[in-house]
C-alpha cells in the first residue's frame, strides 16, 4: 500500500485525483502499478486500477490474475470493480471507502452481486487515515486554487 500511496502522490502532483494502485503476485513480487491518468491521457478509463490491471495482464501474458492481489488507495468505482471481477483477481486491498462511487462495499457491491461470475477476497481500511488525508488535502488545495 505504501507504493500505491507514492503513486497517488505522483498523480496528485500532476493534477490528477491522487489514486495509486499496485498488483503483486502470489510470491509478493510487484508485477504492475498504475496511477490516475485521466487528465494527462484524455482517457476516461485511465484509472489507477485499470492501468495496473492492463499492465499485469501484459506482464503475465494472461487476462486471468487469480493469483494476484491488487492494492489501491481508494475503493474502486463501478468500472474498476467490473474490471477487477473480469480479471479474476484473487484479492483486493483498498485504503479508504468512496462514499460517492464506491462499488466494492460502500455504495454498491459488484463483487458479491448476483451478476458477478467471480468472487474475490476483499480487505478494506488498510492505511485508511493516510489514504483519506491524502485525498482530502488534494481536494482542499484544488478548491483553494479555484477561489
TrEMBL record:
Species the sequence originates in: Anabaena sphaerica FACHB-251
UniProt keyword list: Hydrolase, Metal-binding, tRNA processing, Zinc
Cofactor: Zn(2+)
Record's catalysed reaction(s): adenosine(34) in tRNA + H2O + H(+) = inosine(34) in tRNA + NH4(+)
Record protein name field: tRNA-specific adenosine deaminase
SUPFAM superfamilies linked to this entry: Cytidine deaminase-like
GO molecular function, one term: zinc ion binding
EC number(s) from the headed UniProt entry: 3.5.4.33
